[in-house]
Design brief:
Blueprint: E1 6-8, H1 10-13, H2 23-31, E2 36-39, H3 40-52, H4 57-73, E3 76-77, H5 81-96, H6 103-114, E4 118-121, E5 135-137
Parallel strand pairs: 1-2, 1-4, 2-3, 4-5
Helix pairs in contact: 3-4, 5-6
């Protein structure tokens, strides 16, 4: 099994479901498929989006994608004690600097940090940028 290198943000995992997906995102997912993970926060965001939809073709398509493609192939990393410590310290540091990241984004960043993963997103402006940690933007 390959080492988990990349933690995928919600906007990366949902990209294959959009009408005109970004080719760079799709290629990155294909190329690094054995080194990808998601976190419990991202999984919850994806499920929440699906459950908000009325029953029908679109919801069935998303449910199939999540439970037949994503869940069997990607490990889900948890928010644990180490992540809680990292998040609290990072939010305090950023608050002192006059910046307050969105709570779920800081949880995702914490999970990436404590698991030594590169966080892959399409929106780096909303995520904490801790020293010595990588953030990769696609698309």
């Amino acid at each position: 099994m390959a080492r988990l290198t990349y933690l995928l943000d919600t906007n990366i995992l949902s990209e294959p479901l959009v009408r005109h997906p970004n080719a760079a995102v799709l290629e990155g997912l294909r190329q690094h498929s054995r080194a990808l993970a998601l976190c419990a926060i991202t999984w919850q965001e994806l499920l929440y989006g699906m459950f908000r939809l009325a029953p029908g073709r679109r919801r069935d398509q998303i449910e199939d994608y999540l439970f037949k493609r994503i869940r069997p192939s990607l490990p889900i990393l948890s928010f644990d004690e180490r992540a809680a410590h990292w998040q609290a310290a990072e939010r305090a540091r950023l608050s002192k600097a006059g910046k307050t990241p969105a709570y779920p984004d800081s949880e995702i960043a914490a999970i990436a940090a404590v698991n030594d993963c590169i966080l892959v997103t399409r929106n780096v402006s909303q995520l904490p940028r801790p020293k010595g940690r990588s953030l990769k933007e696609l698309g």
